[in-house]
Structure formats: structure tokens, C-alpha cells
Amino acid sequence: MSVSASSTISTPIVANSATRILQAAMAVCFGMIIVGFVGFSHIEIVHNAAHDTRHANAFPCH
Questions:
Q1: Regions of the chain with pLDDT less than 50
Q2: 23/15 Cα distance (integer angstroms)
Q3: What is the model's pLDDT at position 25?
């Protein structure tokens, strides 16, 4: 009884430059939303939860 082994060669998926630019832009927008919400939130719980981290990274919140 013979067993044949089939091998599959996987090729990496290469993103084009437009896809990379879109991903980078979305990451920047998402980051700005998070920083803007947490950094300038008037909700006391949100402000206090991130207070020490913001000051440790020199991000003003007052």
C-alpha cells in the first residue's frame, strides 16, 4: 500500500500600498478617537481610570 504525500506551498499575502495606507489611516483615526475621548472626557470614571497613564506619557489632561 503506497501513501502519497501532497505538499502545499503557501504564498504570503502581500498588501498593496493603498491597503497599507488605509490601514495606517484607520489606526491613526482610531487612536485619536481614543486619546480624545479619554484625554478630554468629563466623565470622572473615565478620567480617573487613565489619569496616571496619561501623566506618565506627558499627555496633559487638565
A1: none
A2: 10
A3: 95
